[in-house]
Amino acid sequence: WGAERDAQRPMIVVGDPFVIHGGPHLRKAPCHFGWDWGPMLPAIGVWRDIRLEGYGAARIDDLHLRQCHADGRVSLSVGVRAERWSDAALRATLRLTAPGGRTQSAEIALDGAAGTLELDVEQPQLWWPNGLGEQPLYRAEISLHAGDELLDRRSLQVGLRTLELRRQPDEWGESFTFVVNGVRVFAKGANWIPADSFPTRVAAREYNKLLGAAAEAHHNMVRVWGGGYYEDEAFYDACDRLGLLVWQDFMFACSSYPLDEQPFLDNVEIEVQQNVARLRHRACMALWCGNNEIEGAWVEWGGWDTPAHADLKAAYNQFFQHTLATWVAAADPDLPYWPSSPSSGGNFDKPGDGTRGDIHQWSVWHHMHPFERYRDTRARFVSEFGFQSLPSMPTVASYAAPEDWNLTSYIMEHHQRNLAGNGKIITYTAAHFRLPHDFASLAYLSQVLQLEGMRIGVEHWRRDPMCSGTLYWQLNDCWPVASWSSIDYFGRWKALQYGSRRFFAPVALSVQESADGAGLFVANDQPKPWFGELRWTLETLAGEALRSGRIPVQAAPLAATALETLDFAADLAGDARRDAVLVCELWCGGECRQRSVTPFIPSKHLRLAAPQIAVDIDPVGQQLMIELKARSLARFVELSLEGADVVFSDNYFDLPAARFVGVTCPLPQGWTIEQARAALRVRSLWDTFGEGGA
Q: How far is CA 29 from CA 89, 128, 253, 327, 487, in A?
């Protein structure tokens, strides 16, 4: 049917040859028709639960819970609308249970079929985004009665919090900052795509695992991208529980749509009303966004803004700027609405203008610019940017035999849905690293590249007072594939996921190197100052100190603090930079909290030697304690347990000479310490090209 309609009225789609035409005529997950990370698998059939419900005199048709915070209390109101089949007098009750078990109640008689329950919460326990506080959840139970008969009951999970999207004129343009409970939030996170090409295979366990990994890596926001579908309750339950704010796109992405056809609009209106009503009470919900990249497509993408498409463009603006905005405001006046991503506010007014709204930064990867281009980009909010990597070798082995472990093999190119993607991986690899011995080393290098690119971008935007958020593309996969994800289809953490735990840390050290020196910074996302010490050493790869220093740190709250600019021009003269790196450590309470190693040339030009990493592994309860020490700098140390999938406390880190690093991981169930010692694998950059390297 979609293909027939498309033949009558073609819609603009992107992604050839990996896309099936006709999808925009159907209200179905756009990515099921093919995307640049997913296969063309338009699943058909009923894919969510069906149940038969029976009622007596009436049922609850709609609930609208709202909060008003003032004078240290929260006033809750719950609008109740009933669907009724008798003239019996109806009453509604609200029972609110606090996290500690204390309950409060309210009751009203409905006026016909509607009414509003009201209740004040004294000394409320506030809900906070991950990293800023706890996530206490109340349980609101609303019941409908006729006399003593219980007719219907609904239960809502509620977090008490205020939220606004602050857009105010300032010295750079207009801010775009989420504010929760009066505290500015620097949004840190990733974009979410459907977790499987077949949605019925995704259960609460998968949501908890993936979103739990995001929270563990200090993410505080997830963007539900507009090319998928509105997620299950289990997804939003997990976000409520974990403190992950949700940027929620409506399901329109990268295509034109027949938004001037009334049957299509009637269908979409029901879709919008049902999903807004379903989600508006949730603490995690932060923003309703009209679509993904369509406004920008009309302005910037070739072949869109033509006389032949004038009707589609006019219908687009009427719908996303007016119709959809009106529907959302009527159903949920408390959450902000944003017309598109990226956008500067709509009406085709310079979408992607860095001084207003949000941007998508794709000059790196799609346009093949170097990672350093991120540092030239100033923005209020970066809601997409990314770089591809190959999945881990056990994942590669799930779809490719060893004879196909070549980036240009048929299978490898089939599991790469971005045209020229594998070529880009090779080009960027050659710019940063020596070409590797084998395919497994190439897969490892691609992940290290991805980590380094995202680190450079995030650290830059966290340093910039103009910026209020970064959401990299993307958190997860829907099948085993080379993609922009930080966690692969089977839930295995790539290097980027480990790296995000470092560069998204609430207090994070960053170094901005130049040809002959470095600027030192500490970003502090907490609402209170942070005190510590930064210790730096310019040293040889073998660990000989050339210069060193200590800097007291008083990191201002909710800001990045510039500490010092170091000049190493004399130390790095001539060929000396090939044998020198800057090692910085952030100390607090007698403990090294974070370490960074910064070279002044591409890693391929460092005079790396065999690091000769000494490893000691011992059991501590149900955990493994792994201690490592290197005789020479080991870059991007990767740990793995062959035959087991575990998450390490740190991974893909730099290990400077003569320093101990301790890492923990779970002891796999049923394993002995001898098995763990035999299965532990340690790799670093040198092993990908050095003599005897794997």
A: 43, 31, 10, 21, 22
Best CATH choice for the domain 506-607 from the list 3.90.1150.10, 1.10.600.10, 2.60.40.10, 3.90.400.10: 2.60.40.10
User: Rounded to an integer, what distance in angstroms lies between the CA atom of residue 215 and that of residue 427?
Assistant: 33
Residue 19 confidence (pLDDT): 87
pLDDT tens per residue, range 127-171: 999 999 999 999 999 999 999 999 999 999 999 999 999 999 999
Q: Which residues of 127-147 are buried (b: 16+ CB within 10 A; e: fewer)?
A: bbbbbbbebbbbebebbbbbe
| pLDDT band at residue 2 under the 50/70/90 scheme | confident
Q: Please indicate whether residue 627 is annotated as part of the active site.
A: no
pLDDT tens for each residue of 606-635: 999 999 999 999 999 999 999 999 999 999
Give, in words, the CATH class of 163-503.
Answer: alpha beta
Whole-structure pTM value = 0.97
Instruction: Parse the chain into domains and list their residue ranges.
Output: 58-158, 163-503, 506-607, 608-694
Per-residue burial over 409-420, b = 16 or more CB atoms within 10 Å of its CB, e = otherwise: beebeebbbbee
Compute the distance between CA of residue 428 and CA of residue 436 in angstroms, rounded to an integer: 13
Class at the top of the CATH hierarchy for domain 608-694? mainly beta
Residue 200 exposed, middle or buried by CB count within 10 Å (0-12, 13-18, 19+): exposed
Q: Which of 171, 271, 293, 403 is catalytic?
A: 293
- Give domain 58-158's CATH superfamily: Immunoglobulins (2.60.40.10)
Instruction: Determine the average pLDDT of the residues in 297-305.
Output: 95
